[in-house]
Amino acid sequence: MTAFKFCPRCARPLIEREQGGLVRRVCPDQACGFVHWDNPTPVVAAVVEHEGQIVLARNALWPQRFFGLITGFLERNEDPAEAVLREVEEELGLKAQSPAFIGHYTFERMNQLIVAYHVVAEGEIVLNEELSEYIRVAPEKARYWPAATGLALRDWLHSRGYQPELIDLSPRGKGG
Questions:
Q1: Each residue of 20-48: pLDDT tens digit?
Q2: Is 82 in a helix, a strand, or coil?
Q3: Which CATH number fits domain 41-166: 1.10.10.10, 3.30.200.20, 3.40.190.10, 3.90.79.10?
């Protein structure tokens, strides 16, 4: 649950109460009626295919050696397929086309709903300030991680006939 402690409408301290089958933070003032539903945030993700390889990028805030899909928040009234094209252009400087839906995945740690697509992109890769580096991986050598965007990559690879290896992210594992 999020760190909401006070009602954004009347500033009373929130309490926990069953609401809609789950325990939620609610305003104790019945007249106010505020309920913090804590709905997930929609995020788009792209398996970017560029010159026959998959582009994985490292966010500037991530630990060294971890690379992931291109992701971004869905804007108000934005179609997810259009959002994924926008994110690829903003983050990689590439023109992507023909977004193909892979699936949707929950990312519980961040309370996000990931809407994943495959895109084919053209142009020269130019990273924006959010990304610090990228790698290119041949699909037959790609590995996936056990979280939402990793599962999207796995599913896309399976759809192409590949059997990717799971990256062991445990402290004793090989890492990414």
A1: 889 999 999 999 999 998 899 999 999 99
A2: helix
A3: 3.90.79.10
